[in-house]
Amino acid sequence: MNNGKILIIEDEKSMNDVLSMLLEDEGYNVSQALDGKEGIDIIRKDIFDIIITDIKMPYADGFTILKTVLELSPETIVIMITAFGTTEDAIDAMKMGAYDYIQKPFKIDEIRIIVRNALEKRLLSRQVKTLRTQVEQTYRLEKLIGKSLKMREILMTIPKIAESSSNVLITGESGCGKELVAHAIHNLSKRVEKEFIAVNCAAFPEGLLESELFGYMRGAFTGAILNKEGLFEAAEAGSIFLDEIGDMPLNLQAKLLRVLEDGSFRRIGGLKDIKVDVRVISATNKNLLDEIEYGNFRQDLYYRLNVIHVHLPPLRERKEDIPLLIENFTGQYNAVGRRFTKDAVDVFINYPWHGNVRELKNAIERIFTFTDKQLITIDELPMEIKGYEANKTKQCQKGDIEISSDGVNLDLIMEDMEKKYLLKALELSKGVKMDAARLLHISFRQFRHRLKKYGIN
Q1: CATH no. of 5-132
Q2: Which is nearest to 301 in space by CA: 433, 173, 201?
């Protein structure tokens, strides 16, 4: 975004031209209308930061302009122009919702100050609106916790990634901290003073997701009673985080591809291309290469998103980080002086954590909710966690594995076991191979290879 988009509606052409040249010299993007009707036509087609309008005009006066703006684009700031002796009209307009007024004959410095303050108000309003939708928490690099080799490597690369302007794709299972990484990249970059906007692509129906990302013009569809700015515009000069990008519908993927290729898009129902400078950080828990092969994801979009790749390992692959995470979450819940016994921590370490860090955090929150004990033992752990440990111990003690004096063929046993699991997964997924692969926590490509290996059709 430049210094701001301004529309001047003034029927006196010389006055209109003077205001336009003055504001263009200040670096603003200025459009002109020579009467109220022309002004309303322009307002219906585009969104402006500021509209400066005369009160007395043919076809439609300033009050009609103000009413139209409040209906179509209520976030746009309206400044009235009033002739000497008609300031009462301007004051009435301010009571209706106008920001300020300029009195003829005007002073150049006065106009500069009014417009500058109005634009600052507009930008501040936009920032406040965005901040309200975000979690009230500062995401910095220190929020990413880990001493394991894999996490240390990631923590070392994030500052380097932040220095670039390239798009980033973050992969990993649900709950392992992909949004934390995205926030850290933004907050360590030169874009930190601008917006970071997070969007969960799986949380919106297809049509609603498009309108959220790209905005729309009034009348574009049923219910579109106002012009709406999209999140890509709101993230201008900042970053947008597209979580669960693998769930984005194919036709919307094509529109996103255009933004990544030339930095432009159109609002739904719009006639003009809008240029934006936004860094795209995306994330998914899916294997996008498998999704491409399955026809669910565009290959050209994948290569645009995957300029820099960060893969977050699941918690079960970095068990040495669990004690650090327990300590961190204990501090978050103001449990000063409370601690877990070594046996309890060991149970946490041995648990598989399919929900990853999020599941661990929820488990600790639950413990502190239901017990006031200073020393947390295995007895205070959630049933599914201590039950898993007890069941695993029972299986080990059972000792029902037998090996004859002639020995066994371990390869054949493992192949037979693997084949049974493949068939069971296909049965549970009603033959849908992608779903069966997910049940076994392997990629679609790996699943298909194993079906071929065992001749399973």
Answers
A1: 3.40.50.2300
A2: 201
- In tens, the pLDDT along 265-298 reads 999 999 899 999 999 999 999 999 989 988 999 9
Q: Which fold has domain 145-311?
A: Rossmann fold (3.40.50)
**348-383 core/surface letters (b: 16 or more CB in 10 A; e: else):** bbbbebebbbebbbebbeebbeeeeeeebebebbee
410-453 in CATH: which number? 1.10.10
The arrangement of secondary structure in 320-398, i.e. its CATH architecture, is Orthogonal Bundle (1.10)
| The pLDDT of residue 345 is above 90 | yes
Mean pLDDT of 102-118: 87
Let me know if the fold of 5-132 is the same as that of 145-311. yes
pLDDT digits (tens, 9 = 90+) for 147-180: 899 999 999 999 999 999 999 999 999 999 999 9
Contacts of 68-73 with C-beta under 8 Å, sequence gap 24+, read 68/40, 68/43, 69/43, 70/96, 70/97, 71/225, 71/226, 72/43, 72/44, 72/218, 72/226, 72/227, 73/43, 73/47, 73/48, 73/226, 73/227
pTM > 0.85: no
Percent of the residues in the chain that have a pLDDT greater than 90, as a whole number = 54
